[in-house]
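Budget justification note: compute hours in this period were largely spent on complex prediction jobs such as the one shown. Inputs:
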Amino acid sequence: MSGERALARVCAAALDALRRSRPLVHHITTEVTSGDVANATLALGALPVMASAVEEVEEVAARADALACNLGTLTPLRAEAMVRAAGAAAARGIPVVMDPVGVGGTVLRTETAARLLAAAPGMIVRGNPAEIAALAGASAQMRGVEATGGPADPVAVVRALARSTGGVVAMTGARDYVSDGETLVAVDNGHPLLRRITGAGCMATAAVAAFAAAGTPALVAAAAALATFGLAAERAAARASGPGTFHAALFDALDALAPDDVANGARLAVLEGEMRWT
Amino acid sequence: MSGERALARVCAAALDALRRSRPLVHHITTEVTSGDVANATLALGALPVMASAVEEVEEVAARADALACNLGTLTPLRAEAMVRAAGAAAARGIPVVMDPVGVGGTVLRTETAARLLAAAPGMIVRGNPAEIAALAGASAQMRGVEATGGPADPVAVVRALARSTGGVVAMTGARDYVSDGETLVAVDNGHPLLRRITGAGCMATAAVAAFAAAGTPALVAAAAALATFGLAAERAAARASGPGTFHAALFDALDALAPDDVANGARLAVLEGEMRWT
Amino acid sequence: MSGERALARVCAAALDALRRSRPLVHHITTEVTSGDVANATLALGALPVMASAVEEVEEVAARADALACNLGTLTPLRAEAMVRAAGAAAARGIPVVMDPVGVGGTVLRTETAARLLAAAPGMIVRGNPAEIAALAGASAQMRGVEATGGPADPVAVVRALARSTGGVVAMTGARDYVSDGETLVAVDNGHPLLRRITGAGCMATAAVAAFAAAGTPALVAAAAALATFGLAAERAAARASGPGTFHAALFDALDALAPDDVANGARLAVLEGEMRWT
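Corresponding output:
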């Protein structure tokens, strides 16, 4: 069995664990894509709980199996809710995932990302090349919340940010990169139609949170989530006639994907270090 | 004509009344599913108006034909808006429907549900088994906002809550139960795919509000709404290949359903008391 | 070449300019349809950036190619954000578009519309007949946020509002009217299914903002946007079996429309003055 097939089998086992445990994922997310995030979470086999009031997020996060914080349409109140929820989750060892939407683009988002990283050290970060570069202090081109040009050396940026946060970093693009600072994995699943809908990144983040919620270690959870989500996108694209029907088909595909499909369809490569899945 | 067929014809007449009167329904709802709620309201033949600012909800509610309050992604400000709108509606005899999303799960939601019940006595409550049990003071299992185990005796819980609120209670699940404390009706329409999308409960609540807005008495409105919504789900499922295409097909089915379809397809049974539809 | 064909070619050229420049559109919009607005913006070929916090809107607006403000589910805080963003955009000559959802229906919305008109003089306004009538001080029937009866003389109302604001006004309905106070254009593309989904008006506004963001002058941008959006609706309707599948097909159609399709399918007529597209 080749190394790539072995990695794909690890991803398949992670999906199997997710389907069996049906974990609860607490999302504090943007109003733009919150329905998509909840539906992607359900389609993958996890249960979403959406709560973002400062008054209740600690109660909710403390009972969840993972917390996902998304910086889209951020407000100071929502930022405060995220920081409190992240603290409550971190105190209990519950995995925390951050989607730093638009970080580097406004002071509010940049400051909130820093507060979240401090509140839950070792968290998982899932972002586009410009967002990961901004967090890593590298330069990249951005227009609004879309990365229009990635950093010159994506591998170096992902590795550097993972080392500085002490957690796992996932940068998604034509090729995805996932690193814990030692091991670096590339994921080649996905489809260009993901760039033609809003919320694709948010849903990828939701997938990472769902896999981590099932107890899969962060590096494997992130890689397995991106391979699974990308594979679902490939299948949805085959049934779609544009971004609108692709969007609907994406939930069908996430729901229908079996662990064996992932074992056969995931395309991963270890670029640095070695993958430990125990 | 059997009793079940007579009930189905009552539901058909209620849908006909809804289509003819095109009532206005004011929704104060969660950001997660507000688009779905508005689209379901439109597809059923009513007009949605979405307004949730404390500064304007009383103006809006006073001119609507029904008010629906949904506790998803609740904030203290939105709770205050709901309480004010419910008071304005109740003062004018406008039907009020509450969807107690996640009640029992956080202090904010439990307190808000109690405030709403006090603001609009005799309102309609539409919830899942865990939410209805929590409001009734019974115990049930819940994970996030999903009921994972219903109360031991659902009929007793629905009846008890209806008696204590003086209104109508609708508990949805594999079998739906609707009661005004005297009469108790079971509705058997629906499809398991409803559990695979977010917003199914919110849309069921929107359906109840739309039927009540057309002037149909609360008990019949709730039963007719759940039968109609469940029947639409059955038809949508027949055209779907997963939760994403089901979601889109659900609006097509709600829009296409004619009163005759409901007369032929609604499956209801009176378990206690008798149904009065005048 | 007839006058209508010449106008259609102008619209086609505007779509071509939009596709080539891929402009950035800042949306401050309602939570009900924000996902639809972002997806329509992407499908047309522009990039959406959604940000509505008072603390960051000026930073975001100042870097965008157009700003679109939508008064749905308005709050005082969001109103303040819109006013600040509109001021920042106007100061830099960035086109501003307002969708006055529900104006005339509540004090908050009426006051906010007036504040926005003052913050960005000469802006583009896109609304339904009741909203445009309310802004123009004419009378029209409205239920919630739906116009149920238009003003008696729509052409006069559109012209009058355009003259009083010094900008461009677009009133959408079975026939759309666009005016800068001198020239008045009618657009006859569209489909009745647009009235069966929520967000159709919001997406039409997003289309106007996207065309204006590409540097097309306001009058032509508004007319071209409504013709393009209406044409996409016609094509989507041909593939739909109801409002749910229409909704998904609409994004496919927006994405697939080529400038040549617009040159052949746009249906416009100049009712007053003459169209200048340079």
